[in-house]
């Protein structure tokens, strides 16, 4: 990080982004003016002006951390983004491609030829190449594999074989291993010869001659114990370990629970195959959080802020189509009670309140259940208590807020029966919202679907149609 310009979070990054935007605007303005001028050697002058105005921008980009350059690229329209991307030094392409979002990475890779992509990938570690590989053309992947030594080729093929939500897809291979029959002094001399440690190193992995994991040596133990002591006497023999096929979400919870920085990854024979680091886990958590947020909003995938209109439409129309169907169903429910609405006009004004409150309550319940499922807190032993608890919450909320709305309806329309119908409809719709708010994510989870995907859309559809039916049905029974 020392070779890059140090920026304070947020404010300074935003200032830098604004400076880049200003430089781009100035470059375009001057270029347009020169282009319109009629002068000798016009093409030479235009070329010099073009280069001169981009020197300052390139100098600024060279000083920025790859993550900051990625942020700037994501915040620029496509034409400006590609101009800035051309100014980035070729040796930094790979690390910046890793930092940008998937949608933006797609636009950048589309502008690069095979040789550029190959050079960018070759500058990365094996685990980083595995992260980038799904977006690379097949021929580039083949050339990469052919250019690697046998060990790295096996590692890359192994990493590509794991699903993206497994520990194997997140682990890296940059780690330090030692034997247990040497002294701490020997370990210290070995580390000094290395000169530097892999990032996020808080422990060394102790293995035998066959690379079978025997324990870990935390650096703090290495520093505070007698240098003459053996590794076997000081190491921790029961570290938290993971297997490549373990679920990455479970691993992330373990990192939070045990405050881990790194952890060993072993195969079925307890042989050390890699390590999992806190930065990879944090990236996974952020990506999962973003994915859940997009899914709950009905978006199929992450969307480039400056994507084409057609691509954005394709990304958004799936759940809009579902919404259209559910809205039509809700309108048909209302149509069943047209006669009642004609006789009591107040029903038309009050029924959106019942549906709206029900939808909000259902989304609260769904959010709690989805979160509990993600944390592994829901199981057969507590499901009944959880269900009864949500029913109780909704019943109490329905009675309290339903009574309040019933009182308001009576004050507005001077109709006691209408107030009672309002109270009853609110209570019943909140109970319906609780039942569906629990059942929808549980059923989706049972069938292996992501419970966050579209749950809010489905619960809103149920509470809208159900709320209209309950309120108008009660009104028809007791008021008409």
Your description of this structure?
- By secondary structure, the protein is mainly alpha-helical.
- The protein folds into three domains: 11-170, Alpha Horseshoe (MgtE N-terminal fold); 177-277, CBS-domain; 309-478, SLC41 divalent cation transporters, integral membrane domain (Tetracycline Repressor, domain 2, Orthogonal Bundle), CATH 1.10.357.20.
- It has 22 helices and five strands.
- It has a three-stranded mixed β-sheet. Strands 4-5 form a two-stranded antiparallel sheet.
- Helix 21 runs antiparallel to helix 22 (455-478).
Strand count: 5
Radius of gyration: 30 Å
**Distance separating the two termini:** 74 Å
- Architecture (CATH level 2) name of the largest domain: Orthogonal Bundle
Write down the secondary-structure element order. HHHHHHHHHHHEHEEHHHEEHHHHHHH
Number of domains: 3
If strands are numbered along the chain, what order do they take across the biggest sheet? Answer: 1-2-3
| CA-based shape | globular
**CATH topology-level fold name of the largest domain:** Tetracycline Repressor, domain 2
What fraction of the residues are assigned to beta strands by DSSP?
Answer: 5-15%
CATH class of the largest domain: Mainly Alpha
Structural class estimated from helices and strands: mainly alpha
Q: State the helix count.
A: 22
Assign a percent range to the helix content: 55-70%
Largest sheet: 3 strands, mixed
Average pLDDT over all residues: 87
Low-confidence stretches: none
The CATH fourth-level homologous superfamily of the largest domain: SLC41 divalent cation transporters, integral membrane domain
